[in-house]
Amino acid sequence: MVTPVKVERPVKRIEYTLTQDLIELNHLLKHTGFADSGGSGGALVSTGVVKVDGRIELRKRNKIRAGQVVQIADSEIYVLAGSGEVAAKPDVKAEKKPFSKPVAKSGTKPAAKHGAKPFTKSGAKPSTKPTAKPFAKSATKPVAKSAPRSAKK
Fold first, then answer.
1. What is the CA angle 39-45-50, rounded to 5?
2. DSSP one-letter string for the chain
3. Given 14, 58, 70, 75, which is the most exposed site by the fewest CB atoms within 10 A?
4. Residue 31 in contact with residue 23, Cβ under 8 Å?
């Protein structure tokens, strides 16, 4: 009797360094070259061929953090923590100028914005529909009404 021989393939090790605290699984597959886009990465996950920490993962947007291992085919992706330095956002509040609303003269309404239609006195917007034309008189003859029926005897 012949016993089957189990041939182990060499595992390809890939290290991915995070730039933020986490990455979605479909985006990780895109960045590491296993998928052409995040959508195809999500389709790959939904087939059940991707494992996270040894367990089959079907959630395409599963959040992967530093220290986790993602397995796909004969490859393992080791997710490493980044330097922790995130690019600082510019101080937007310091650049903003205080908002000033245009002041209307007393007794007048504020000017309408460019392209805006003015309101009527009642506050409703004026109708943009064309005005209805009166019905044309029909060319057919009027139907004569019959006399009321008399009560049955």
1. 140
2. -PPPPPPPPPPEEEEEE-SSSEEEHHHHHHHTTS-SSHHHHHHHHHTT-EEETTEE---TTPEEETT-EEEETTEEEEEE---S-PPPPP-HHHHPPPP-PPPPPTTSPPPPPTTPPPP-TTSPPPP-SPPPPPPPPPSSPPPPPPPPPPPP-
3. 58
4. yes
pLDDT digits (tens, 9 = 90+) for 81-105: 986 544 333 344 444 555 555 555 5
Query: How far is the C-alpha of 73 from the C-alpha of 14, rounded, in Å?
Result: 13
**65 is written with which tokens?**
């953090």
pTM for this predicted structure: 0.50
110 token code pair = 């504020």
Cα distance between residue 140 and residue 145, in whole Å: 15
